[in-house]
Known about the structure:
Blueprint: E1 7-10, H1 15-27, H2 34-41, E2 43-50, E3 58-64, E4 74-79, E5 84-91, H3 97-102, E6 107-122, E7 130-134, E8 160-165, E9 169-174, H4 176-187, E10 197-201, E11 207-212, E12 225-232, E13 236-252, E14 262-266, E15 271-277, E16 287-296, E17 312-319, E18 324-334, E19 337-341, H5 343-352, E20 358-362, E21 371-375, E22 387-394
Antiparallel strand pairs: 1-2, 2-22, 3-15, 4-5, 4-11, 5-10, 5-13, 6-9, 6-11, 6-12, 7-10, 8-9, 12-13, 14-21, 15-20, 16-19, 16-22, 17-18, 17-20, 18-19
Helix pairs in contact: 1-2
Amino acid sequence: xxxxxxxxxxxxxxxxxxxxxxxxxxxxxxxxxxxxxxxxxxxxxxxxxxxxxxxxxxxxxxxxxxxxxxxxxxxxxxxxxxxxxxxxxxxxxxxxxxxxxxxxxxxxxxxxxxxxxxxxxxxxxxxxxxxxxxxxxxxxxxxxxxxxxxxxxxxxxxxxxxxxxxxxxxxxxxxxxxxxxxxxxxxxxxxxxxxxxxxxxxxxxxxxxxxxxxxxxxxxxxxxxxxxxxxxxxxxxxxxxxxxxxxxxxxxxxxxxxxxxxxxxxxxxxxxxxxxxxxxxxxxxxxxxxxxxxxxxxxxxxxxxxxxxxxxxxxxxxxxxxxxxxxxxxxxxxxxxxxxxxxxxxxxxxxxxxxxxxxxxxxxxxxxxxxxxxxxxxxxxxxxxxxxxxxxxxxx
Length: 396
């Protein structure tokens, strides 16, 4: 079943032997432990395994992990053949006392929303347009996600006008009557009905834009803001700016964007892959010295936007029902190959005697919509299949 390298290491020589001793010794302080026994016997066997050559059970799947995208730095809006992205924004309307006192006699000449673009995805020549709607549901950025979309309520009327769309900026005017109602709520110190706006793409849209959202790490000037022009008779005409208080985007899409032979790994949608390698044939005292996981992707079937993050992460799968995972290892990309040493993940499997598989996620699951089409085990060529190369130590 496994390929034996035929190496018998005696004495404290050889890098792999030293590594194995350190690993074994760290397992327990008990002198009767396996690590100590191996140390006393001074004999360790080093064996290799190549899942493309050795016969073991292996399979791959894709799944969606629904995440709240409110902590993302970037908000998405638009539509492609496979995806639809919508955005919710609340503004922090902290009125100065002057405007509170004068509110009944103030005229709102203009309310203009500005969004700073930082990303695009899909057909660069595709149509892009959207509508804006008054939200009537009290949502929260940290808990609201795509599974919550059925709870969202909003008015059907489009409250935007004079939309200006460029690759660097999206701006539009907002119904001043809605803004007045927000300011009235703020004056009463309740803001109970100030649930913000909902932006959704039109049906003919074929492009997605990403613009900066609320983030403590970003300059406030590039975050969403609304500019109001307030006039009180002949006394003053003031321009005031209010920034976003909360924001979140929601992505709708399915795991059918690539043929079944691929594992779909995608940001935004948060589509993850799962690999399973049956390691039950390893000796019970095995310790993984090195484990190179290699994944091949098909560029022609993959889709990326502007300014995307390279690489994917491999994780130890904790639970298959809740799809929980930890112990991240970065698999860096070179051309069409992702690879990295996942020995920490496999040693955790062996120590816990639990193998729920290896989860593959986008490097930045909340940002962008990058979709990698990674070959699964049904690939025609063996060289394209997920591959695990192991070097492990065990008692002879």
